[in-house]
Write the C-alpha coordinates for this entry.
Amino acid sequence: MSDSRPTNIGFGTLMKYKFPPMAIASILHRISGVILFLMIPFLLWVFDKTLASQQGFNAVHAVLSGGVARFFLWVFFSALVYHFIAGLKHLFMDLGYFEEKCSGKMSSTLVMLVSLVLIVLLGVWLW
Amino acid sequence: MVNSTTSLTKSGLKDWFIQRVSAVILIIYTLFLLGFAIKHTPLNYVDWSMLFAHTWMKVFTLLALLSLIGHAWVGIWTILTDYVKCSFARAVLMVIFLLAFLTYVIWCVTILWG
Protein backbone atom coordinates (compact mmCIF):
# COMPACT_ATOMS: atom_id res chain seq x y z
CA MET A 1 0.00 0.00 0.00
CA SER A 2 1.45 3.31 -0.95
CA ASP A 3 1.18 6.00 1.67
CA SER A 4 1.60 9.54 0.44
CA ARG A 5 1.24 11.12 3.90
CA PRO A 6 4.37 13.03 4.91
CA THR A 7 6.44 11.41 7.67
CA ASN A 8 7.86 14.74 8.76
CA ILE A 9 5.65 17.79 9.04
CA GLY A 10 7.27 21.04 7.91
CA PHE A 11 7.47 23.90 10.36
CA GLY A 12 5.29 26.10 8.14
CA THR A 13 2.54 23.48 7.99
CA LEU A 14 2.87 22.89 11.72
CA MET A 15 2.21 26.55 12.45
CA LYS A 16 -1.14 26.35 10.63
CA TYR A 17 -2.49 23.71 13.00
CA LYS A 18 -4.80 24.65 15.83
CA PHE A 19 -3.23 23.20 18.96
CA PRO A 20 -5.25 22.17 22.02
CA PRO A 21 -4.17 23.73 25.36
CA MET A 22 -2.50 20.44 26.36
CA ALA A 23 -0.14 20.64 23.38
CA ILE A 24 0.76 24.27 24.10
CA ALA A 25 1.30 23.55 27.81
CA SER A 26 3.51 20.60 26.84
CA ILE A 27 5.75 22.43 24.35
CA LEU A 28 6.15 25.32 26.82
CA HIS A 29 7.24 22.80 29.45
CA ARG A 30 9.94 21.60 27.03
CA ILE A 31 11.06 25.10 26.08
CA SER A 32 11.22 26.25 29.71
CA GLY A 33 13.18 23.09 30.55
CA VAL A 34 15.76 23.82 27.87
CA ILE A 35 16.08 27.44 29.09
CA LEU A 36 16.67 26.23 32.66
CA PHE A 37 19.20 23.65 31.44
CA LEU A 38 21.13 26.33 29.52
CA MET A 39 21.19 28.54 32.62
CA ILE A 40 22.84 25.98 34.94
CA PRO A 41 26.35 27.46 34.45
CA PHE A 42 25.00 30.93 35.15
CA LEU A 43 23.34 29.64 38.32
CA LEU A 44 26.58 27.99 39.47
CA TRP A 45 28.45 31.21 38.76
CA VAL A 46 26.02 33.09 41.04
CA PHE A 47 26.50 30.49 43.81
CA ASP A 48 30.27 30.56 43.34
CA LYS A 49 30.65 34.37 43.50
CA THR A 50 28.05 35.11 46.18
CA LEU A 51 29.40 32.47 48.55
CA ALA A 52 33.09 33.29 48.00
CA SER A 53 33.23 36.70 49.72
CA GLN A 54 31.38 39.87 50.59
CA GLN A 55 33.01 41.51 47.54
CA GLY A 56 31.76 38.71 45.30
CA PHE A 57 28.26 39.01 46.75
CA ASN A 58 28.25 42.77 46.11
CA ALA A 59 29.64 42.28 42.60
CA VAL A 60 26.87 39.82 41.67
CA HIS A 61 24.29 42.15 43.17
CA ALA A 62 25.65 45.00 41.04
CA VAL A 63 25.73 42.88 37.87
CA LEU A 64 22.17 41.59 38.39
CA SER A 65 20.83 45.11 38.95
CA GLY A 66 21.70 46.05 35.36
CA GLY A 67 18.92 46.28 32.78
CA VAL A 68 19.97 43.42 30.52
CA ALA A 69 20.79 41.14 33.48
CA ARG A 70 17.42 41.91 35.01
CA PHE A 71 15.76 40.78 31.80
CA PHE A 72 17.75 37.50 31.91
CA LEU A 73 16.77 37.10 35.55
CA TRP A 74 13.13 37.54 34.56
CA VAL A 75 13.49 34.95 31.77
CA PHE A 76 15.15 32.53 34.17
CA PHE A 77 12.51 32.91 36.91
CA SER A 78 9.69 32.83 34.34
CA ALA A 79 11.01 29.53 32.98
CA LEU A 80 11.39 28.24 36.54
CA VAL A 81 7.84 29.26 37.52
CA TYR A 82 6.33 27.71 34.41
CA HIS A 83 8.39 24.51 34.54
CA PHE A 84 7.60 24.14 38.25
CA ILE A 85 3.82 24.51 37.87
CA ALA A 86 3.59 22.42 34.69
CA GLY A 87 5.72 19.82 36.48
CA LEU A 88 3.25 19.74 39.37
CA LYS A 89 0.53 18.96 36.83
CA HIS A 90 2.65 16.05 35.58
CA LEU A 91 2.99 14.68 39.10
CA PHE A 92 -0.79 14.92 39.57
CA MET A 93 -1.24 13.09 36.26
CA ASP A 94 1.06 10.32 37.55
CA LEU A 95 -1.40 9.95 40.43
CA GLY A 96 -4.23 9.55 37.93
CA TYR A 97 -5.74 13.04 37.86
CA PHE A 98 -6.43 15.30 34.83
CA GLU A 99 -6.08 12.45 32.35
CA GLU A 100 -9.43 12.91 30.57
CA LYS A 101 -9.90 15.26 27.62
CA CYS A 102 -12.02 17.73 29.60
CA SER A 103 -9.98 17.79 32.82
CA GLY A 104 -6.75 17.78 30.79
CA LYS A 105 -7.88 20.85 28.89
CA MET A 106 -8.86 22.60 32.11
CA SER A 107 -5.67 21.75 34.01
CA SER A 108 -3.44 22.80 31.08
CA THR A 109 -5.27 26.11 30.74
CA LEU A 110 -5.05 26.64 34.49
CA VAL A 111 -1.29 25.90 34.50
CA MET A 112 -0.74 28.53 31.79
CA LEU A 113 -3.00 31.11 33.42
CA VAL A 114 -1.49 30.77 36.91
CA SER A 115 2.03 30.90 35.43
CA LEU A 116 1.16 33.95 33.36
CA VAL A 117 -0.11 35.81 36.44
CA LEU A 118 3.01 34.87 38.44
CA ILE A 119 5.33 35.82 35.57
CA VAL A 120 3.66 39.23 35.23
CA LEU A 121 3.88 39.76 39.01
CA LEU A 122 7.54 38.75 38.82
CA GLY A 123 8.11 41.40 36.16
CA VAL A 124 6.38 44.02 38.32
CA TRP A 125 8.55 43.03 41.29
CA LEU A 126 11.77 43.09 39.22
CA TRP A 127 11.17 46.52 37.69
CA MET B 1 14.21 1.93 17.08
CA VAL B 2 15.11 4.32 19.79
CA ASN B 3 18.74 4.07 20.78
CA SER B 4 19.02 3.93 24.56
CA THR B 5 22.84 3.94 24.80
CA THR B 6 22.98 7.56 25.95
CA SER B 7 19.86 7.47 28.13
CA LEU B 8 20.43 7.74 31.88
CA THR B 9 19.34 4.22 32.86
CA LYS B 10 18.66 2.51 29.47
CA SER B 11 15.16 1.84 30.76
CA GLY B 12 12.18 4.06 30.05
CA LEU B 13 10.55 3.17 33.35
CA LYS B 14 13.68 3.89 35.40
CA ASP B 15 14.24 7.17 33.52
CA TRP B 16 10.65 8.11 34.30
CA PHE B 17 11.13 7.21 37.96
CA ILE B 18 14.37 9.22 38.29
CA GLN B 19 12.74 12.21 36.63
CA ARG B 20 9.93 12.12 39.23
CA VAL B 21 12.13 11.60 42.30
CA SER B 22 14.52 14.36 41.18
CA ALA B 23 11.53 16.62 40.51
CA VAL B 24 10.31 16.20 44.09
CA ILE B 25 13.79 16.94 45.49
CA LEU B 26 14.03 20.05 43.28
CA ILE B 27 10.58 21.23 44.40
CA ILE B 28 11.63 20.95 48.06
CA TYR B 29 15.00 22.68 47.43
CA THR B 30 13.44 25.52 45.41
CA LEU B 31 10.72 26.17 47.99
CA PHE B 32 13.31 26.05 50.78
CA LEU B 33 15.55 28.66 49.07
CA LEU B 34 12.50 30.81 48.25
CA GLY B 35 11.37 30.66 51.89
CA PHE B 36 14.88 31.54 53.08
CA ALA B 37 15.10 34.49 50.67
CA ILE B 38 11.71 35.80 51.80
CA LYS B 39 12.54 35.39 55.51
CA HIS B 40 15.91 37.14 55.13
CA THR B 41 14.82 39.84 52.70
CA PRO B 42 16.81 41.84 51.64
CA LEU B 43 19.31 39.01 51.46
CA ASN B 44 22.79 39.86 52.74
CA TYR B 45 26.14 38.08 52.51
CA VAL B 46 26.33 37.04 56.17
CA ASP B 47 22.94 35.25 56.28
CA TRP B 48 23.56 33.74 52.85
CA SER B 49 27.05 32.38 53.57
CA MET B 50 26.03 31.23 57.08
CA LEU B 51 23.32 29.07 55.52
CA PHE B 52 25.85 27.35 53.26
CA ALA B 53 28.31 26.88 56.13
CA HIS B 54 26.12 24.08 57.49
CA THR B 55 27.06 20.59 56.36
CA TRP B 56 23.41 19.63 55.87
CA MET B 57 22.97 22.56 53.47
CA LYS B 58 26.07 21.54 51.50
CA VAL B 59 24.74 17.99 51.23
CA PHE B 60 21.23 19.27 50.38
CA THR B 61 22.68 21.54 47.65
CA LEU B 62 24.80 18.77 46.13
CA LEU B 63 21.77 16.46 46.22
CA ALA B 64 19.73 19.15 44.44
CA LEU B 65 22.44 19.59 41.77
CA LEU B 66 22.67 15.83 41.19
CA SER B 67 18.86 15.75 40.92
CA LEU B 68 18.97 18.65 38.49
CA ILE B 69 21.53 16.81 36.37
CA GLY B 70 19.59 13.52 36.42
CA HIS B 71 16.40 15.45 35.58
CA ALA B 72 18.07 17.38 32.75
CA TRP B 73 19.76 14.24 31.40
CA VAL B 74 16.41 12.48 30.98
CA GLY B 75 14.79 15.63 29.57
CA ILE B 76 17.57 16.45 27.13
CA TRP B 77 17.77 12.83 25.97
CA THR B 78 14.01 12.81 25.33
CA ILE B 79 14.16 16.06 23.36
CA LEU B 80 17.20 15.02 21.32
CA THR B 81 15.65 11.65 20.38
CA ASP B 82 12.54 13.54 19.25
CA TYR B 83 14.19 16.23 17.14
CA VAL B 84 17.70 15.11 16.15
CA LYS B 85 17.24 12.23 13.73
CA CYS B 86 20.91 11.67 12.88
CA SER B 87 22.20 9.32 15.59
CA PHE B 88 25.82 10.47 15.19
CA ALA B 89 24.88 14.12 15.76
CA ARG B 90 22.72 13.06 18.71
CA ALA B 91 25.58 11.09 20.28
CA VAL B 92 28.00 14.02 19.83
CA LEU B 93 25.54 16.44 21.46
CA MET B 94 24.87 14.02 24.29
CA VAL B 95 28.60 13.60 24.98
CA ILE B 96 29.02 17.40 25.08
CA PHE B 97 26.18 17.68 27.59
CA LEU B 98 27.50 14.81 29.72
CA LEU B 99 30.91 16.51 29.89
CA ALA B 100 29.12 19.70 30.91
CA PHE B 101 27.27 17.79 33.65
CA LEU B 102 30.55 16.38 34.95
CA THR B 103 32.04 19.89 34.99
CA TYR B 104 29.01 21.18 36.93
CA VAL B 105 29.38 18.50 39.61
CA ILE B 106 33.09 19.24 40.09
CA TRP B 107 32.40 22.99 40.10
CA CYS B 108 29.61 22.57 42.66
CA VAL B 109 31.80 20.47 44.96
CA THR B 110 34.58 23.08 44.84
CA ILE B 111 32.07 25.85 45.61
CA LEU B 112 30.69 23.97 48.61
CA TRP B 113 33.85 22.41 50.03
CA GLY B 114 36.63 24.36 48.26
